[in-house]
Amino acid sequence: MSLMLFGDKSLDLSLPHVMGILNVTPDSFSDGGAFNSLDAALRQSEKMIQEGGSIIDVGGESTRPGASPVSTQQELDRVLPIVEAIKKRFDIVVSVDTSTPEVIRGSAALGAGLINDVRALERDGALQAAAETGLPICLMHMKGGPQTMQSQAEYVSVVDDVVSYLSSRVELCESVGISRSRLILDPGIGFGKTLSHNLSLLNHTEVFKSLGFEVLIGLSRKTMIGEALGLPVEERLYGTMGANASAYLKGARIFRVHDVKPHVEMLALMSRIEREG
Ligand code: 7PJ
């Protein structure tokens, strides 16, 4: 057992967990923003929970390459009602995909269990806000911002660079009283990385684990799958599952995906083979 407390629920991170993506942006690239109303968000959440998801990741800011920025008020208006509604109706861990201090505080007050920040708490005030929540935090590596990241895909050694960046963010977290045991690391697949960088990071997932952290991987339907297989976004499920299976074998335990059921079934078998075989 390796229990981590996510607000009012704990998860055993010796087992794999599926984090279902719930985009509440109007411009989400792979679901066309179809879950933008509260009702649709609740139906999608219910489906992902029934399919065996452990965490619902609510995001109100699109971070895909080239996406336009969202105001704090817009993000608050999109995210908080959804976090509140999900926590009222379902017994599930709600993660909030945000870099905004006001959204971090507001979501935590409404029962969110995980702060998932693609900017690793770099935004002004985010570190302090996250510290105050007492919640676990996922620190993700990104090179550049959503507007510029694909033109900044240069590294001395991508694995070493990402390790050294995340280690420096961990130290900063510790300096404001966030204990290491509350931190989850994510190499940030697709965020300012070429296909080759992404493949290296995935092949070295165990490096992050060996630093003593749980690892979260988000690669569902991403461009790297499309590039590797020559497939459009709606045909990337099998490639996504293969890459996630590989990351599982190298120690990742939280998988951020659009397609919950196939991942829950795949990971259930992989975990069972490892434990009972
Ligand atoms: C990730 C994320 C990821 C974490 C997004 C997309 C882009 N959070 N939020 N890791 N990706 N922790 O889903 O294509 O890889 S948004």
Question: What can you see in these coordinates?
Answer:
It is a single chain. This protein has ten helices and ten strands. The longest helix has 18 residues, at 72-89. The mean pLDDT is 94. It has an eight-stranded parallel β-barrel, surrounded by five helices. The protein has a two-stranded antiparallel sheet with strand order 1-2. It has 277 residues and is an alpha/beta fold. α9 runs parallel beside α10. The chain has one domain (3-275): Dihydropteroate synthase-like (TIM Barrel, Alpha-Beta Barrel), CATH 3.20.20.20. The site of ligand 7PJ has 14 residues, from β7 and β9. Ligand 7PJ binds next to β7 and β9.
Summary, kept brief:
The chain is α/β, with parallel strands linked by helices. The protein has helices spanning 38-50, 72-89, 101-109, 126-133, 158-175, 195-203, 205-210, 223-229, 237-249, 260-276; strands at 3-6, 9-12, 17-23, 55-59, 93-97, 114-117, 137-140, 183-186, 214-218, 254-257.
